[in-house]
Design goal:
The protein is α/β, with parallel strands linked by helices. It has 6 domains: 12-66 and 102-155, LON domain-like (Archaeosine Trna-guanine Transglycosylase, Chain: A, domain 4, Roll); 177-254; 306-348; 361-538, P-loop containing nucleotide triphosphate hydrolases (Rossmann fold, 3-Layer(aba) Sandwich); 542-609 and 652-673, Helicase, Ruva Protein, domain 3, CATH 1.10.8.60; 675-863, Ribosomal Protein S5, domain 2 (2-Layer Sandwich). The chain has 32 helices and 27 strands. Helix 6 (212-219) runs parallel beside helix 8. It is elongated, with a radius of gyration of 47 Å. The chain starts with 11 loop residues before the first strand and ends with a helix. One of its GO terms (molecular function) is serine-type endopeptidase activity. Pfam families: AAA (PF00004), Lon_C (PF05362), Lon_lid (PF22667), LON_substr_bdg (PF02190). ATP binds at residues 404-411.
Length: 881
């Protein structure tokens, strides 16, 4: 038999410093490379090298860092002269000291073969190496430090291609056999059906004995410190002696684990055997403790609730099917919790539970009148529903939609309706909802599925005939998850909602007894199909008189209660309330008015609290005498000004009366002043009326002309419809210039000849659009070219045609209220809008003079003092004669 020569590793090896673990010969390890030196090593040796030797590395654990602190004057030159690898860092607290960090390489390392290299640039450049240990080596000298360390090494283990196993057994003797016995015992305690365990059992017989300590140490549960001790054990005998206690410790741990698992399996079998016995042996008249055990079982209780619930037959079948699946399902399955939550929701839903309506019409009328002032049309519709409900018990709930500006009480009316009927109330905010699953729910196949807001609301109120308020239905969104407005079609259709199917329930639920009330600021953004399913009830803004009544009936008492005041401490006359409405607010509702009243109450609360403090201070005789003697202690007989102020500042007289001067002190100068007459002090200005989702508003239109090329400029963020109205107005005036004797600056009847016209709509930051500004633009341009002033107390609205006809527009009531708030006296409206005047309150109709017009001629005659008559020329008069 020929002699076998050992395999030698290179005498110089690049050193790979590892922080994650210890690599032993014969074992494989993955390590992450992210330091600068290790990255340079991988790029230079592994990625660019072609020979086998270039893939052999020296792996050493980087486990020790020595911190040396010394003065700069001591030993500094000595360390620099030795060429040792170190890093220098200065401590800001001790500038006279230097800290040297020496990376001390472990004396023994493992020569390894790089099997695989995987790199990535995220989140920072790094590599992952798969390395296999070959043999031990000892570092003799570090010959190079940069760009990566290279050391001169000495091989400690022999690497033979065909090791002599018999010779090794003879040398180790009993120690080798003892180690082999413990190794076989450890492997046989594992599950041999696992392929990796079976392979390890075969390797115990085929691998040389001297390689087993390193391999088994890397497999069993050991610390890095213990692995370093095994790596440092160069002698084979010493290595066996250190590894045997580790094997014994692992064997004892496995025995304890197997014993614990056996006890747990026995307990589980006992529980599984007992639970069916409890259910089978339960009979009527059993002992009380057996009943308590059954009640404590959640599944049994859930099954009992399903049996006693009054849900429809279809829903009952689904629940029975699901409870059978739940009984066969282990609790560790994720579907167990989903099924249980579904069944709990099914039994909690009010399938047949409802409240009894209070059908006293007189009591309902009184309650609505007490809660809300005005809103006659809305209260009339609620009383009609009550009357029909009294005559017919199975009336389906109507679908009402309150449309009006913010702050007019749409949401509070819905709450009052529920209170009047004696029903439960639930509000669903739809503003910004862009997922149809919010309405119909998620299917139970999705993770985190839940029912929609309709079913969830029914679960919350606990009855099947509540009042649902769908708030801000005009602000629904649309996204990739569907259109919630389309999902509402089934909910708000009286012919379909008796069979509403939520995706989560997947069974029909009857919504026909629910009274749905939707609120919106405008109907323009509501889809036509959804709008068609609702009964629209307009809720316009309040008049000044209505706001005064609302303030003194509801807002002021509420603010007094919130701020701890009483009517004996503060009085707000109606004149003051009118000043707040006209000079500090400009809105259709009463929210800003409520905030201003709150500011007044806070200011009065400060005065009242200060007065109580001063009264308590003056009632103390010792304090009063001390403050009275204080003046005599000052030099030159001068008194303390602070004391004088304290003595003179007596508590305010009660009640505190809020007048205009108090308003100015509390709220500041008026925010809105009547500037109408000032704005119309020159030709080319007219007042129009506009409708916005916030209510009616007055709108000024200004025009000017200058020399140019006949261009028309429009500013003020105008929409396309309003731009077209401007072009219509200028075209009509140009075609009727001779009739009204309108000329440009040069006296020509062609109004745009060498003339540019600029139309501006103030409040340029507000987007404006709509056809109702046509008559205002025509009047403004007629004033500009005629040089006559438009009446300062007149406002107008209406759409025009190219032939000068005035067409009807919407929002007449809101526009009339805006003119009334602005203090105007005359309002010009289209003749076909005359029927809308009936909706305007009587006091507003009494204060305003409404003039109907069917053509622009009538508009111009009403807008100017003395009318806008035709100025006849002499030639025209002679021809007529």
């Amino acid at each position: 038999m020929s002699s076998v020569s050992p395999i030698q590793i290179p005498s110089r090896l690049p050193l790979l410093l590892t922080h994650e673990g210890v690599l032993l010969p014969g074992s494989t390890m993955r390590t992450s490379v992210d330091s600068a030196r290790n990255l340079q090593l991988v790029r230079s040796r592994l990625l660019k090298g072609t020979s086998l030797q270039s893939t052999i590395l020296g792996v050493t654990p980087n486990t020790e860092v020595i911190h040396l602190h010394f003065r700069c004057s001591l030993l500094f030159d000595e360390f620099l002269g030795k060429g040792k690898p170190f890093e220098v860092s200065f401590c800001p607290a001790y500038r006279a000291f230097v800290t040297l960090l020496f990376c001390v390489f472990f004396r023994i390392g493992t020569a390894a073969l790089a099997v695989q290299v995987v790199g990535s640039n995220w989140p920072k450049p790094h590599y992952t190496l798969l390395i296999t240990g070959l043999c031990r080596f000892q570092i003799i000298q570090v010959v190079k430090e940069k760009p990566y360390p290279v050391a001169e090494v000495e091989q400690l283990d022999r690497l033979e291609e065909f090791p002599n196993t018999c010779k090794t057994r003879e040398e180790l003797g009993e120690l080798s056999e003892q180690f082999y016995k413990y190794a076989v015992q450890l492997v046989e305690m594992l599950d041999m059906s696992v392929p990796a365990v079976a392979k390890l059992r075969r390797l115990l017989d085929s691998l040389p004995r001297e390689a087993l300590p390193d391999i088994l140490t890397s497999i069993i549960r050991t610390s890095n410190k213990e692995k370093l001790q095994i790596l440092d054990a160069v002698s084979l005998e010493e290595r066996f002696k250190m590894t045997i206690p580790l094997l014994v410790r692992q064997i004892e741990g496995l025995k304890l684990l197997q014993k614990t698992r056996k006890h747990k399996q026995d307990d589980d079998k006992r529980v599984i055997a007992i639970r069916p016995m409890r259910r089978i042996t339960h009979v009527p008249g059993a002992l009380a403790d057996e009943d308590e055990d059954e009640d404590n079982d959640d599944i049994v209780m859930l099954e009992k609730k399903i049996r006693t619930s009054s849900m429809p037959e279809q829903a009952h079948k689904v629940c029975v099917k699901e409870i059978k699946r739940l009984k066969k399902m282990p609790q560790s399955m994720p579907e167990y919790a989903l099924t249980r939550n579904y069944l709990e929701l099914m039994v909690e839903l009010p399938w047949n539970k409802s409240t009894t309506d209070r059908l006293d019409i007189r009591a309902a009328r009184v309650l609505l009148d007490n809660d809300h002032y005005a809103m006659e049309k809305l209260k009339k519709r609620v009383l009609e529903y009550l009357a029909v409900r009294q005559l017919k018990n199975n009336l389906k709930g109507p679908i009402l939609c309150f449309v009006g500006p913010p702050g007019v009480g749409k949401t509070s009316v819905g709450r009052s309706v529920a209170k009047t009927l004696g029903r439960e109330f639930h509000r669903i905010a739809l503003g910004g909802v862009c997922d149809q699953s919010d309405i119909r729910g998620h299917r139970r196949t999705y993770v985190g599925s839940m029912p929609g807001r309709i079913i969830n609301g029914l679960k919350t109120v606990g009855v099947n005939n509540p009042v649902f308020l769908l708030d801000e239905v005009d602000k629904l969104g649309k996204s990739l998850q569907g259109d919630p407005a389309a999902a509402l079609l089934e909910v708000l259709d009286p012919e379909q909602n008796h069979n509403f199917t939520d995706h989560y329930l997947n069974v029909a639920f009857d919504l026909s007894q629910v009274l749905f009330i939707a609120t919106a600021n405008t109907t323009a953004s509501i889809p036509p199909a959804l709008l068609d399913r609702m009964e629209i009830i307009q809720v316009p803004g309040y008049t000044q008189e209505e706001k005064i009544e609302i303030a003194h009936r509801h807002l002021i008492p509420k603010q007094l209660e919130q701020h701890g005041l009483t009517p004996q401490q503060i009085q707000i006359p109606q004149v003051t309330t009118l000043d707040i409405i006209t000079r500090y607010t400009r809105e259709a509702g009463v929210r800003s008015l409520d905030r201003k009243l709150g500011a007044i109450c806070r200011a009065v609360a400060v005065k009242v609290a200060e007065g109580q403090h001063r009264e308590a201070k003056l009632d103390r005789p010792d304090v009063a005498e001390g403050e009275g003697c204080k003046e005599h202690l000052l030099e030159d007989g001068k008194s303390d000004p602070v004391s004088d102020t304290t003595d003179l500042a007596l508590p305010p007289e009660m009640p505190i009366l809020i007048d205009f001067h108090a308003l100015k002190d509390i709220l500041g100068p008026p925010m809105y002043e009547m500037e109408v007459s000032e704005r119309l002090s020159q030709p080319g200005v007219a007042i129009g009326l506009a409708w916005t989702p916030l209510g009616g508003e007055i709108m000024f239109v200004e025009a000017s002309r200058m020399d140019g090329e006949g261009q028309l400029t429009l500013t003020g963020q105008l929409g396309n419809v309003m731009k077209e109205s401007a072009h219509l107005a200028i075209s009509w005036l140009r075609s009727n210039a001779k009739k009204y004797h309108l000329t440009n600056a040069s006296g020509s009847f062609d109004l745009l000849e060498n003339t540019d016209i600029h139309l501006h709509f103030p409040a340029g930051a507000v987007t404006k659009d709509g056809p109702s500004a046509g008559v205002t633009i025509a009047t403004c341009l007629a004033s500009l070219f005629s040089g006559r002033l438009v009446r300062s107390d007149v406002a107008m609205t209406g759409e025009i045609t190219l032939r000068g006809l005035v067409l009807p527009v919407g929002g007449i009531k809101d526009k009339a209220l805006a003119a009334h708030r602005a203090g105007l006296k005359r309002v010009i409206i289209p003749q076909r809008n005359e029927k809308d005047l009936e909706e305007i309150p009587a006091n507003v109709r009494q204060d305003l003079s409404f003039i109907t017009a069917s053509c622009l001629d009538e508009v111009l005659n009403a807008a100017f003092d003395g009318g806008f008559t035709v100025k006849a020329r002499p030639g025209l008069l002679n021809s007529k004669l």
